[in-house]
């Protein structure tokens, strides 16, 4: 599965971002918690908006539960380490990635699911890239997330193809993948889990 994700994404996370992550250990965990919470919210929103697809309802329900469990695991690590959980501004990554999402159906659903797949794929790739540089507890935790994040990527992409009804969506996938590549290689003002490149 990890090989599939590497082949799917157009580039790997730059080493410079990994260096920033290691310099901002508290923000890494705070924003990771925020990302898990947002991922659960996205899945729930899809369940409320698209009630006529049992496969989508089941997969998003499971995904939301898993993301909330990951959120609980992150805040438990934070509490253990004396890191307060606080509100922080989100990175521009997700909002910028979603800008080309079309506003009519089923195109809106297709694009939203593609974006979900890319976010899950990038998260999985970053967990894998970070893990070797972390302490034993965090390394074990981040490696434990790879399987579920990879499955979430597959679920989103499969649902996008199903929503397209057999139509070719490769051009839409490429469009959003190009945005992902540009965003993670661009300069950012603040470090976040999905930020681009930040000066130390």
CATH architectural arrangement: Up-down Bundle
- How many strands, what sense, and barrel or not for the largest sheet? none
- Please give the number of β-strands: 0
CATH superfamily: Ferritin, core subunit, four-helix bundle
Query: How much of the polypeptide forms β-strand, as a percent range?
Result: under 5%
Q: What's the overall geometry?
A: globular
Roughly how much helix do the residues carry, as a percent range?
Answer: over 70%
Q: Look up the CATH topology.
A: Ferritin
- Multimeric status of the protein: single chain
Helix count equals 8
Domain module count: 1
Q: Radius of gyration from the CA trace?
A: 16 Å
Which terms summarize this structure?
single chain, 200 residues, mainly alpha, Ferritin, 8 helices
What does the secondary structure layout of this molecule look like, with pairings?
Layout: H1 2-8, H2 15-23, H3 25-49, H4 54-80, H5 93-98, H6 107-130, H7 136-163, H8 170-185
Helix pairs in contact: 1-6, 3-4, 4-7, 6-7, 6-8
Q: Explain this structure to me?
A:
The structure is a single chain. The chain has 200 residues and is mainly alpha-helical. The chain has a single domain (16-81, 93-185), classed as Up-down Bundle (Ferritin). Helix content is 71%, strand content 0%. It is built from eight helices and no strands. The model has no long low-confidence stretch (mean pLDDT 96).
């Amino acid at each position: 599965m990890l090989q599939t994700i590497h082949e799917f994404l157009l580039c790997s996370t730059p080493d410079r971002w990994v260096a920033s992550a290691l310099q901002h250990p508290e923000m890494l965990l705070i924003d990771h918690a925020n990302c898990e919470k947002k991922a659960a919210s996205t899945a729930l929103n899809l369940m409320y908006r698209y009630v006529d697809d049992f496969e989508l309802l089941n997969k998003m329900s499971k995904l939301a539960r898993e993301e909330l469990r990951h959120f609980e695991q992150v805040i438990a690590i934070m509490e253990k380490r004396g890191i307060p959980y606080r509100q922080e501004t989100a990175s521009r990554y997700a909002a910028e990635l979603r800008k080309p999402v079309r506003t009519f159906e089923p195109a809106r659903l297709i694009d939203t699911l593609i974006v979900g797949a890319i976010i899950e794929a990038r998260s999985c790739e970053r967990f894998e890239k970070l893990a070797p540089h972390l302490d034993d507890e965090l390394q074990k935790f981040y490696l434990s997330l790879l399987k579920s994040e990879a499955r979430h990527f597959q679920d989103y992409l499969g649902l996008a193809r199903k929503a397209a009804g057999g139509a070719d969506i490769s051009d839409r996938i490429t469009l959003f993948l190009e945005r992902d590549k540009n965003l993670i290689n661009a300069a950012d003002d603040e470090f976040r889990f999905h930020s681009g490149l930040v000066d130390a």
